[in-house]
Design goal:
2 copies of one chain form a homodimer.
Chain A (H helix, E strand, L loop, with lengths): L2 E6 L7 H16 L3 E6 L5 H12 L5 H25 L4 E4 L6 E3 L8 E4 L2 H8 L3 E5 L2 E3 L5 E3 L4 H12 L4 E6 L20 E3 H9 L7 H10 L3 E5 L7 E4 L12 E5 L2 E10 L4 H11 L4 E10 L2 E9 L3 H9 L9 E5 L2 E7 L9 H11 L6 E5 L2 E7 L3 H11 L1 H4 L1
Parallel strand pairs in A: 1-2, 1-9, 2-6, 3-6, 9-11, 10-12
Antiparallel strand pairs in A: 4-5, 7-8, 11-12, 13-18, 14-16, 14-17, 15-16, 18-20, 19-20
Amino acid sequence: MRIIVQKYGGSSVATVKRIQRVAKRIVELKDQNTAVVVVVSAMGKTTDKLVAKAHSITEQPKVREYDMLLATGEQVSIALVTMAIDALGCEAVSLTGAQAGIITDNVHGKATISEIHTERIMKLLNEGKIVIVAGFQGVNLEDDITTLGRGGSDTTAVALAAALKAELCEILTDVDGVYSADPNKIDSARKLDEISYDEMLELASLGAKVLHPRSVELAKEYGVDLHVRSSFNMREGTIVKEEETLEKKRIVSGIASDPKIAKVSVLGVPDRPGIAATIFGALAEAHINVDIIVQNVNREGINDISFTISRDDADHAVATLKKLPQDMCAGGVVVDDKIAKVSIVGAGMISRPGVAAGMFRALADEGINIDMISTSEIRVSCIIARNRADDAVSALHRAFESDLA
Amino acid sequence: MRIIVQKYGGSSVATVKRIQRVAKRIVELKDQNTAVVVVVSAMGKTTDKLVAKAHSITEQPKVREYDMLLATGEQVSIALVTMAIDALGCEAVSLTGAQAGIITDNVHGKATISEIHTERIMKLLNEGKIVIVAGFQGVNLEDDITTLGRGGSDTTAVALAAALKAELCEILTDVDGVYSADPNKIDSARKLDEISYDEMLELASLGAKVLHPRSVELAKEYGVDLHVRSSFNMREGTIVKEEETLEKKRIVSGIASDPKIAKVSVLGVPDRPGIAATIFGALAEAHINVDIIVQNVNREGINDISFTISRDDADHAVATLKKLPQDMCAGGVVVDDKIAKVSIVGAGMISRPGVAAGMFRALADEGINIDMISTSEIRVSCIIARNRADDAVSALHRAFESDLA
């Protein structure tokens, strides 16, 4: 049985009309002799509205109840999409995360899928039915509803594609694919036909927004081919797959910027073993993802440690650090949330020296100061002032235009 | 452990302010050394909005998906109420119908509770936690979400009270209790301090709206004392309990009218055994509740059968009857939906003849024609033209005023 998993984002199911169009597209795929499993997000701004409701009740909603609340958004979507398919004369069955057998750990709001019991989905597919699964949610071993956090529906789709050994996971969204830069800001940005998991991972982590890094990581781990394409037209989008199977490796595939970050500096850290482990261990326990870390030796025996995190986590990070023994940060904790990260990404970068230097030169020519630098084999990222982020992306796209073409 | 089950209707949790007030009331009850289980309906008009959404997708939504959709309404409420209790520093846990162990049959949209696995609720109560359960919903043995239909949250509350052996089931609503007639229409209507299950059952069936008959039936079956009272004030409401424990039995306790009915007449029914069984068997299979049945012998060997049903079921009933062999209703099927039922109810009626005659006299004096009559030991009902229903209730309240006082 040829199985394809499709995922429709919130904007693709935002209205009744769109839901009906999505239903038609699902039925068309099913008619191509394909078993179809569809993962659906909450309609349009539903999740935001539910979040606002929770916060109108209390500033700090209990995480378990927060998940109970948010999970209703996707449940509404799957019911309506299934009704719309049914109205087209095709049989479909909706499943909540729990009913779809998506088991997670206990971390409410940011749960990780631990296993998927596919029996029920496989049974329905074998009966010739289309299966519509609520994205973003699962159930822990105590039978409590959990949510997977940001990008959760992508993760659901990829995890299901892996568990069901699907041929492909289509991510249907409101853009035509993955671009070399944000097409809303860079006129010359162009759609990539294909890109490797690693490149996509870097771009996703860097705020390209099309795919959540967790889902790309999962796709890479299980070798699930992704097809990122528009739900509003039938044009081919971008295929995300193994690097070895790419037709050509570009030196620079894309340029991304992420304005939603903050830099936290822990000042006056004593220079003895285990300090960094304590600091980042505490942050990890608080489920705060740290991105770039820089340690400066200021004066003898005293260090400053700076790191970047999602801006949403800044308050939580500071609160977590303040709970550490006082001598760990004798100089205090400082947050700078007026920064952005701009990055260039390309699988061909490894074999071509001087790419990083070219990036620093392009930023310098634009008069943009670099605060922190971080590199990987296929990426160079710079932390700069947020109000220069758009200028930086433009300058970099110009500088690497010949590579991107 | 002293357990009290409270049920809050949709209007009691319609806004954030009301949810916070409900939370305060729950915590106050818990502070009285009481284990509290709360059943909550969907907020305000939520269910209506979800129904409208389903019907904007398709005229005849699939019942399984309809339940999947509607169940989200209560899920939102339980999460928000639990958050509000948590904000008051008290520990609460929300449970969907499935999580609360409420198992039903497979009749989507009108499911019947078959059993309740109380282990999880009892465990939470033993841990000192308040338990907030989604009303109106359960889960069938296939793990599909079901809804209980109209009055479902009352039924959930009473069933839980029975299963948990609760001391009392409080039904908190937007009225002060059960009245001798609709207080919005009859100025002299007065609140009853207590009423028997049977009287309440008749009044509930007759459209008194305060309690759904299914929940009263269940309360009677398991001997659960109900306290119907306002969620907006702390005044005592109406206790519904065993007739033997009532302080006094009134001849007439209440007067009710139900405008939401229709009369279906099956004309030209052959006069042979088994015909009525076929007709009403088919209706029962279609899950249509029939109320009053009248059979007239018109001419030799040919009968007309008329019956009343909920107006919502009228189309469904006609469709069901049209599927019967043609000779069963040679004269066709006629629907009259311009009718209403007015009734007088009283446990003391049994021992006092002439009550029915008094009712007919009062209606005749008002110039109101009686179309059908139905009586039980504690009730007399008349089918009349709907546009005279209010006049009828006024006239009857005046006629039986001394009994009601």
